[in-house]
TrEMBL record:
Organism lineage string: Bacteria, Bacillati, Actinomycetota, Actinomycetes, Streptosporangiales
Region of interest: Disordered: 332-364
Record SMART domains: AAA
Protein name per the record: ATP-binding cassette domain-containing protein
GO molecular function terms listed in the Swiss-Prot or TrEMBL record: ATP binding; ATP hydrolysis activity
Protein source organism: Actinomadura barringtoniae
Coiled-coil ranges from the UniProt annotation: none
């Protein structure tokens, strides 16, 4: 089973620029969590802080009894081996073929012999749908394949915590659906604790058990996915709708004057006095409906993390907002991600939606 990661009062700055402050959350063992947030809000900085590559000025990150912020380098280094990190671009060595790239951590950090290394590498390549591609160079494959190679490399050391930095960046929607399924299948196979950083709403809607969002240097909540997906917090709503109106602006947050003008326009539109342009602003995307969470592909085990998540949510239920409770009841009525099925099948069709036929092991 994966390991819980406890973040307490974390604050990170670069010089005078505060990236985020007083962030506290727990990544529950073996569950899948997503961290959303507009560009530049410090999601990657957050991931790097979890594994001790960046040092926040305040707070703690507790992993298996070690504080990844304040403990000695020796102790931090030992616990870092529990993590597998999937970088945005795969971070592969351009001159090495995929086999050697993926074998690299084993050759560098273990005393395993080549036949054992070969067995592990080929197994992980198969797991991410890259079987038979060992001899290809990173420059000869697609961006999606590079990501999956990066994921295979993150898996060779048997990590118990997997951090994925924007697994969707640069991928088309179909490849993004495949990588979403791959991440859920991976969680079903190895029960690792997972944190995925993304702005992708499809991933946020279909993959995680828990969602948080970083915005304006704060964590805007973190908890069961239904809480954030039904949140009425303006920044969350705007983000989920992918709309221009709202507190999130082009570069960072909008200034107060722009926000006030938008709110005045919204009131004029509501009273029927708005201009045509203002009316067009109001027709931007609607907030997406909550869709069922992805389930493992047929033949894979049930996600133990989803089962534990459901038990946790049961305890939390009375404390959750009404809309989140309703969303949870609806999801469960449709057959929740944790519910075992006699034939081990998914119950949805691999996308978390109805009417599509994506299969596990598909090519991103
Ligand atoms: N080593 C560093 N030194 C100084 N500033 C940094 C460093 N690393 C990141 N930053 C700054 O921290 C802020 C957050 O960066 P980060 O890459 O974490 O954002 P992000 O939310 O992951 O963005 P995106 O979604 O666009 O990838 C940015 O303003 C960035 O310039």
């Amino acid at each position: 089973m994966g390991i819980e990661v406890v973040v307490e009062g974390l604050t990170k700055s670069f010089g005078r620029q505060v990236i985020w402050r007083d962030v506290s959350l727990t990544l529950p063992a073996g569950e899948v969590s997503v961290m959303l947030g507009p560009s530049g809000t410090g999601k990657t900085v957050f991931l790097k802080s979890l594994i001790g590559l960046l040092k926040p000025e305040q707070g703690r990150v507790l992993v298996d009894g070690v504080d990844m912020v304040n403990d000695s380098d020796h102790r931090i280094y030992a616990k870092r081996k529990l993590f597998g990190l999937m970088f945005q671009d795969g971070a592969l060595f351009g001159s090495m073929n995929l086999f050697d790239n993926i074998a690299f951590p084993l050759r560098e950090h273990t005393r395993k012999r080549e036949p054992e290394i070969r067995r592990i590498v080929l197994e992980r390549m198969d797991m991410v749908g890259l079987g038979g591609e060992e001899k290809k160079l990173p420059g000869q494959i697609s961006g999606g394949m590079r990501k999956r190679a990066g994921l295979a490399r993150a898996l060779v050391m048997d990590p118990q915590i997997i951090l994925c930095d924007e697994p969707d960046s640069g991928l088309d929607p179909v490849r993004t659906a495949y990588i979403s399924q791959l991440l859920i299948d991976l969680n079903a196979r190895i029960d690792a604790t997972m944190l995925i950083v993304t702005h992708n709403l499809e991933i946020a809607a279909t993959v995680p058990d828990n969602i948080g969002m970083l915005y304006r240097r704060d964590l805007v909540g973190f908890g069961p996915r239904e809480v954030l997906l039904t949140s009425e917090e303006p920044a969350v709503e705007q983000f989920l709708r992918g709309a221009r109106e709202g507190p999130i602006g082009m570069s960072e947050e909008k200034d107060a004057a722009t926000l006030a003008a938008e709110q005045a326009a919204a009131q004029r539109i509501a009273s029927g006095e708005g201009s045509a342009y203002e009316g067009s602003l109001a027709t931007t995307l609607r907030r997406p409906e909550i869709v069922p969470q992805l389930r493992p592909s047929p033949g894979l085990p049930h996600r133990q993390g989803a089962i534990r998540h459901a038990a946790r949510v049961d305890e939390l239920l009375p404390t959750l907002p009404y809309a989140a409770q309703q969303a949870i009841f609806t999801d469960r009525a449709s057959g929740s991600a944790a519910e075992p099925r006699a034939n081990g099948t998914n119950g949805t069709n691999g996308t978390g939606r109805t009417g599509r036929t994506d299969q596990a092991g598909g090519r991103a």
